[in-house]
């Protein structure tokens, strides 16, 4: 249920973003509503893997859940765009340990051969949230208030915490018995102190470059140089720490691990763009309500939901995951390419069909690398490897959203004078996506503004094509191994021993 909460948090927000940008006059901040969450998730992801190694699995999970709930409460009560972004960051800190923690629970509780189907079930929670999230977000936004998109997390989170407390009793390893001070030393806090500022500087440069500041400005150049310095220092420190590092070189240096990391980086980044800009396209270009955009988004999320279950089951039955990596990346690349051809008058029959293809592809592209790590690595390395995988997923999402926001806003400002020369471009940007028809009267000006919006949105999907194509070629780096009949190098017994008692 905690994974469902994280997925629901993202899916609900998609249809509420146009309204939020109108309420706070914050269209330029649209990327930050996703990026702030993703920055926090990916920055804390390496730490979460260490925490699960040395602290109680159950209580660590509950602490992460509590922080996520606090972030949701801040978002629900936000009085400004900045406060909402801060709440998203706090929620991201909590979410950092929820998805990876769920995968760690699966790896400790389920025998290797059955893990693909259970991993698919965990991933399907994102699919379920993607099915109901956009519609719920539309209902809350249209009939109550967008704030309920975050309030809904509070009762669901409380039920999850109570359920875990009463029914989940994992067999904790010896490392959880270490003295507290010794556990803290194992968390690699200096590495975290080097890594987090580096990631933040990179994303600020991507957000601001060419929009708030010229790319050649001292601010952007300084941020990029700062990012390079901090990441280089982080790499040196991690090499020095070896197995005590947040990202141990022994694990990260394995071909399948860095290939899987690259695939999920490009995978979630590509899919995240679709998740944010398709609902906006429906609301702005087609003029549908928030509820309507959620319903129109269902073909993609249903494809993702079905694919998560289907492909996990196929891997369990036939053993090999590699073919689905190529299938998924190819489907997402094709989907993104067709999205770039959408026009203001594109019909729904074409839109619905290609969304299903994209959903199926996304299920393969994001799920299979995680399944591969569970079959290729020993049990003792799975918490760290899982956190590395999830880290690169969310880092990809944050980076791609930052770049796509820059493409979108810059494209809108550039194209409004071309297609709607009589329209005040600054007023359109300030009005937000949902407020377009309130500041531009129907007629030639509105048609021109819609053309400008359409070009700006569809240009972001070129990034989806590039990311999915990169993921396709990275798939060649994965080892070809079957989970059927294999014994995890850590031993099946270790997996079963860690099961819930």
UniProtKB/TrEMBL annotation:
Localization, UniProt: Membrane
Topological category with respect to the lipid bilayer: Multi-pass membrane protein
Predominant location category: membrane
Residue intervals of the Major facilitator superfamily (MFS) profile domain: 1-483
Pfam families in alphabetical order: MFS_1 (PF07690)
UniProt KW keywords: Membrane, Transmembrane, Transmembrane helix
Superkingdom of the source species: Eukaryota
One of the record's GO cellular component terms: plasma membrane
Ranges that cross the membrane: 30-47, 59-79, 85-106, 118-139, 145-168, 189-208, 220-237, 257-277, 297-316, 323-342, 354-378, 390-413, 460-480
Presence of the UniProt keyword Transmembrane in the record: yes
Keyword Transmembrane helix: yes
GO MF entries: transmembrane transporter activity
Protein name in the entry: Major facilitator superfamily MFS-1
Species the sequence originates in: Hyaloscypha hepaticicola
